[in-house]
Structure formats: structure tokens, C-alpha cells
Amino acid sequence: MSNAPTNIYPLVVFDIHKRIREYIDKLNEEGQIDQDSNGYPYLIKVDGNGSNHTVQIVRNNKIESFLINTRKRQDPITSWNANDGYKNQSVKQTVDVPSNVDADRSERAKRESYDNIVDKILK
Description:
Elements: H1 9-12, H2 18-30, E1 43-49, E2 52-59, E3 62-69, E4 77-78, H3 105-122
Antiparallel strand pairs: 1-2, 2-3, 3-4
């Protein structure tokens, strides 16, 4: 996208309806929405008409939209096929810690060094 639209997500994240924010976060976790250079989901526009909101996002380098009703618990209506196989590869994955590695070791080391400093001060 050479002429990229402006991402408004960081500006409106706390002002948009909770249900819209949750759906955008769900799309982001599933890799169904593109991200900007800062890692935010690419949100272009939110238009509200009563309880119906039309939200435009960038998905697969194309502008897509979904319609969501904030009062009813129905699934949002999307402009893309949910089974098209698109998955954003830039979504950060969590690191799986092997079960034989002590994951809390660094925290324990910090605590021990803190205890050593406190002991030296108190002596």
C-alpha cells in the first residue's frame, strides 16, 4: 500500500465501544487484521448509526469492513470470507517455554539479588 490510509486505532481505542474494541482485538490475535509499523491493528474508520457501527479496517492490504450491532449479541457481518485462509504473518507469537526449564528463574535471581542488597544495607 503505497498510499496508506491513516491508522486511527491508537487515537480512538479508549473511545470506541467495548464490543467493537473486543472484536478488533480478537481479529488482531487471530492474525486477521493488518498492523501498522507500531504493531497496532489497522483501523481506518468507525461510523455509528444508533447501535449499528460500520468499521473499516485494513486486511490483506485491502480495505475491508464489518458491521456490528452493539446491543445484540450476534456475530458481526464481515465484507470478507472468514474461510479465505488469510493469516497475518507479522502477528507476534508467544514463546513456548519447555516444561523442563524453570521459567521463574530470572525473577528468583532478581529477588535474591534484592535480598542480598537489603542484607548488606541492614548490616
